[in-house]
Each structure stands twice: as C-alpha cells, then as structure tokens.
Amino acid sequence: MAIRKLRTAAILSALLLAPFWTGTAAGAEELPSITVHGAGSVEAPPDMAIVSAGAVSQAKLAAKAMAENNGKVAQILALAEAAGVAGADVQTEAMSIHPVYEDKRGEAGLPAIAGYRVSNAVSIRLRKLDRLGDLLGRLATVGANRIGHIRFGVSDPETLLRQARRRAVADARARAALYAEAAGVALGRVVRITETGSSLPHRNRRYSSRRALDKAGAAVPVAPGTLEFGAAVTIRFAIGKGG
Predict the structure, then answer these.
(1) pTM
(2) CATH number of 48-155+205-223, picked from 3.30.70.2970, 3.40.50.360, 3.40.50.460, 3.40.50.10300
(3) Nearest to 205 by CA among 222, 192, 219
C-alpha cells in the first residue's frame, strides 16, 4: 500500500513539473534575424552649475580653528543666499579637523602637535548660470580659500536623454537596413531591443584658490561650453527573403 502511494506521488510530481519545461527541441529552426548596435547623442548648453567651495583654517587650539572656520563658511552660505541660491541647493560636502605636527618629537618620542587644521566645504547648485562668474569672484572676499570643482549640468536631462535614445534607435535601424540591402534580404519587424548604455555628462572645470585670491571681488571668466548626452542600443530585426 505504501509503495503504491509513493508511485502515485511520483507520477503526480512529474505531471506538475512538465509544463514548466521551456527548452527548445533539438533541431528547431531559429528565426532568421540580424542584430545591430546603434548610438545617438545630443549636445546642449548647460543651464546650471554646481560649485564646491570651502575654507581651511589653522590655529594652535582646535576650538579656535573651528570658530574661525565656522565664521568663513557662514559667510559663504550668506553669499550663496544673496546670489539667489535656495537653501535646498546648498549642501555640506565634507568637514574635517586634523592635528598639524611639528618636525620635532615630543614626549614618548611621538610627534608634537603644533596646532589644528579645520576644513569645511559646501556644494552650491547655481541655477542662474549668468551669476556664476560673479559668485566665483566674490567667494574669496568672504574667506573661501578652497574652490574644488565646477560641474555644469542641465535642469532637465531626461528630455535630452530621450532624444539621444531616439537617435540611437534610428541609427540601429539605418544600419540594419543597409546590411539587409547589401545581403539581399528583406528587413522585418523588431524582435528585441536592449539598451546597452546611456550617459550623463560630468565635465569638471577646476579653479585654484590662488587664482581666485588674485582676482578677489572681480568676476571670474567662465566658459560653460556644451554638454553631450549619449545612448546606445542593440536591436535584433527579423529578416526574410529579398524581393
């Protein structure tokens, strides 16, 4: 009786598992097709910039270095607000405090601490690009002695990426049509589309704090240039016999 139950269970298991088998039968004819890659890009001028600005302060006592640095950063934040930057577009990037050592050795042979260095940097997203040169020039006047980088961008990158994707598909279709014509076959429907890449531009322009100090208060000349947005696809087309 027990053996019969086991056989019945095994048969039921086999029947339940059978529909889930999706393998292709040996010798089945594969759909005739052609697979091509396409790429597209769109260039556009930036309409915003992200500036990394901060201050480095040093003093014998850590508290004094911190207080001096806090004052400088507070002025940087006030300058950003005066330039029309919203509070949501200003963010602390990095803050650190490190001891500064003397060359000579102190007690127990360890390096003696001569003071402390405090560094604080904020990221400022400037949505009014025509104010960038003035902002860079005025940063040094309020105590900013470190300008890390400038990243240009656009407020609506998705629209440009959609254009690049359309161009990538058009490029792939044109390639497929050319190959089909050269091979004497008819280009058919799209069987599969795979996006193989899309890119947002990150072109940085760096400014040294020394240059900013030399032109304290004067607008710094900037060249935003253009940004390139790209996309790439792989498309498989069905093909038939030529006419």
Answers:
(1) 0.68
(2) 3.30.70.2970
(3) 222
